[in-house]
Every structure is written in structure tokens, then in C-alpha cells.
Amino acid sequence: MSTAAGQRVQMTDAQLKELAEIIYERSGIHFHPEKKYVLESRLGRRLAELEMEDYDQYIQFLTIGPYRDDEFQEMFNRITINETSFFRNEPQLQVFENQILPQLIESRNSLKRLRIWSAACSSGEEPYTLAMMVHRTLGVRLPDWHIEILGTDISQKALDVAQSGVYTSYAIRSTPQNILGQYFTQEGDAYELKEDVRSMVNFERHNLKDRLAAKRHGLWDVIFCRNVLIYFDDEMKQSVAQMFEDQLTDDGWLFIGHSESLRGLSTAFEGASIPQGFCYQKAV
Ligand SMILES: C[S@@+](CC[C@H](N)C(=O)[O-])C[C@H]1O[C@@H](n2cnc3c(N)ncnc32)[C@H](O)[C@@H]1O
After folding, report:
1. Is ligand 1 within 6 A of the CB of residue 123?
2. Predicted confidence (pLDDT) per residue in 173-192, tens digit
3. Is domain 13-79 given the CATH code 1.10.155.10 in the classification?
4. Domain 90-282 part of CATH 3.40.50.150
């Protein structure tokens, strides 16, 4: 890492510890000391941009400076992985579309209200995929239903992309051809979502640490929270699992990433025995 003057700035172990504590305190993300090189390489450029001499200066800026909240966002955008795509892990999504969704439509038929929360949704590909599935499953019945799909993430930068509804060919790499034709308009490498699906999803900044903010939205019939628990330690995972328990209807469904598990973290949920797509329901 080098400053604007071209000198290399090292991160000491004490500075690493302090930065890791700030990141954990604010986001629940656990940065292992072995990942020092990741922080150094990603934040090095930021120090140079700010023309800072060392990490102590940066830590001060991040903790007591007048722009500390903005800087936390800036730093967070640089150190987190926002990897996602439309139709990511399709077998699990097929379970949602072909088994869970029809069941929910039947059980909610008198109220005609369905609420889906895609937590840690990054740039929105996941909640939009769910919206397409609801759209094509309900078909002509859609106008009779009150569908709420909320995508949340801690990163405003990711949410800005989500709200724009415009994606590159990388984001649509797993999207079936017929879906592309039905729900996107293409101009060069830009794939723009059509309004009928775009208008089904709302976005909001939310930190999974904030259980109180989650309560404002009431209960959800389905919660997706995939590929973020892997970055949390057990304490944070337990807190998030408690939030899912509080915010899910008694017969609701929880989807987490295929390499993630609630085993040993929560007794409130039990895995549903659906081959291909692992998901959870509240234990009875
Ligand atoms: C790898 S992406 C997963 C996106 C999507 N769920 C998927 O599976 O394709 C992880 C996302 O978690 C978000 N994230 C990390 N910590 C968070 C927190 N404490 N609260 C909310 N979102 C968080 C990151 O900003 C990032 O967009």
C-alpha cells in the first residue's frame, strides 16, 4: 500500500485489531486477523485518496470525524463482497417457485396478501428474481393480490444499483433466455428491468444488526437471507436467527445460503425435508 507520496504504509496488528473491532461493532462482520492483507490492499487506496499518512489517522477519521458515517459506508463498500446474480442457486429457487409459493398462495387466498423480505440483497438481483417468480406464478391473478417484496442491504452503493434496475451481462449470466426476453429490455451490455417487475420491489438500507428496525416492517411470509451469514461470527448469527424468528409468520419459510446452516445457533427452526433446496420453517 502506498500513500499519495508513494510511500508504503503498513497496518500494525493494533491498527488491524481496532479496524476489525469497528467493522464488527457496526456490521457484525468478523474479520479474521489472517485477512489483514485483504484490509490492507482494499483500504490502501483509500488512504492514498485521503492523503493520509497512516492508519491511526484513518481510524480517527472513521470514528470521531464529522464524516464518520459516510466514511464507514465508503470503507464498507470496499471491504465487502457483493457477489450475486439473478437466479443464483436455481435449485433452491425452484423449490420456492414450484413448492412454497403455490402453498402460500393457497393459504393466503382469502387475504390475498404475500410479504417477502430479501435481506442482504446486495444489488437487488435476488428480490427481483423472486418478483419474477411471483409475477409468472400469479399471472392474471396478480392485480387481485397485495404483494410486498422488500430488498434490504447495509450497502447504499449496492442499493443504488438495485434501484436503477439496470444490469450488465454478468448479473444476468444464470438467467434463462425466456426470462430475459420477458422481463428485460437490452441495449448493448445493459439489461434494464421492465417496469412490471421493477415496481413490485422496494428497497431500503438495513443493517442486520438492527433488530428494532426490522420490527417496523412486521411479519414476513418468506425471508431470504443468503450468503451473508458466512461472514458473521456465532454471536451475530444467533442474533440474526433471533430476528428471523421474530419477523417470520408461524407458517413462514426461511431460505439461507446452501453453504450456511442454523445448526447449533437456533432451536426455533427446523430444516424442511425438501430435496434439492434446503429451507427452514419454525419448529412446532
Ligand atoms: C455476497 S452478498 C449476497 C447477496 C444475495 N443475498 C445473494 O445471495 O446473492 C452479501 C451482502 O451482504 C451485505 N451485508 C453484509 N453485512 C451486512 C449487514 N450487517 N447487514 C445487512 N447487509 C449486510 C453486503 O453488503 C452484501 O451485499
Report:
1. no
2. 999 999 999 999 999 999 99
3. yes
4. yes
